[in-house]
Design goal:
Number of helices: 14
Strand content: under 5%
Strand order of the largest sheet: 1-2-3
CATH class of the largest domain: Mainly Alpha
Radius of gyration: 23 Å
Largest sheet: 3 strands, antiparallel
Number of strands: 3
CATH superfamily of the largest domain: Intergrase catalytic core
Order of helices and strands: HHHHHHHEEEHHHHHHH
Length: 291
């Protein structure tokens, strides 16, 4: 099991180009399966895999995580069969549980304006932090994507940025005027002061001249929200959700939003239509006299 797991993870990394985070997630699933099974891999059947998933559920795995685990098993055993290491695929009949319909949180447009306008670009690191928040909201970037943005990936003149997203896929994202101005101001007036001899071309730098880590960016977002007096829990993905929701509310086509977010499947993007419906229901309930 361990030998095949190692080979499969290498396949995901080299041939599929999947992220280290995804590889780690798959590895955790396969390690859990290896500890649980009591028979050789070739003798493993659908019933045993179903029992394994049942045990994972009993251990407290939520429906969304259980669904991901099921997908990991399906992909792994399909690969084993494709390599001729197994004759039959025991994971093929498995049914992944339906995910809970959990609507993403968003910030109201007025709160986002308050958050952005609360940052003083003339104080230390103000320009950097403002550029980060403006870019999150203007372009809907994932946290990992923002941390990896480099100087050569941005076309300030045309207002576009080239993003390397999930699975090594590249997409072109529009950068709004306000975000472009904030990034240019940071690059011109603050980033040079953070540069050291070992600094790379990453746009967003720490006080030591290295690229900002995801944890530090999360901290910056939370600190800035607290300073703006926003009580809601604010985190990078909340700004991405707000970006998509506000586009939809403004009349943007769902396919366009899908492209901007870098979603491979339109069904992932459709969650925002539910957010918009919830908002419409709330407005109707609050303001219609016979609601």
């Amino acid at each position: 099991m361990e030998k095949y797991s190692d080979q499969f993870i290498r396949f995901l990394a080299t041939e599929r180009g999947l992220s280290q985070a995804y590889q780690l997630s798959v590895r955790q699933t396969l390690d859990a399966l290896a500890k649980w099974i009591k028979v050789p891999l070739r003798d493993l059947g659908t019933d045993e895999l179903a029992a394994f998933l049942t045990q994972r559920k009993a251990d407290g795995l939520n429906p969304a995580s259980l669904r991901i685990t099921t997908v990991h098993l399906k992909v792994f055993f399909r690969w084993l069969v494709g390599k001729g290491l197994l004759e039959m695929d025991p994971a093929e009949p498995l049914l992944a549980p339906r995910p809970d319909m959990t609507l993403p949180e968003t910030l109201h447009a007025s709160e986002l304006v308050r958050l952005l306008e609360s940052i003083d670009p003339t104080v230390a690191l103000g320009r950097r932090d403002l550029a980060i928040l403006e870019l999150f909201y203007a372009s809907g970037l994932r946290l990992s994507e923002l941390c990896k943005v480099r100087l050569e990936m941005m076309d300030s003149e045309q207002g576009f940025i080239r993003i390397h997203g999930k699975g090594g896929k590249t997409r072109i994202v529009r950068v709004g005027v306000k975000a472009r101005e904030a990034v240019e101001d940071y690059l011109r007036n603050e980033r040079p002061n953070l540069v050291t001899k070992k600094t790379s071309s990453h746009i967003f730098l720490s006080v030591r001249g290295g690229p900002l880590s995801p944890d530090r960016v999360r901290q910056i977002v939370k600190e800035r929200a607290k300073m703006a007096g926003i009580d809601q829990n604010v985190y990078p993905h909340l700004l991405r959700h707000s970006f998509a929701t506000h586009l939809l509310e403004g009349g943007a086509d769902l396919r366009v939003i899908q492209e901007l977010l870098g979603h491979a499947d339109i069904s992932t993007t459709q969650i925002y239509t539910h957010v918009d419906r919830q908002r419409l229901k709330s407005v109707h309930k609050n303001f219609h006299p016979r609601a």
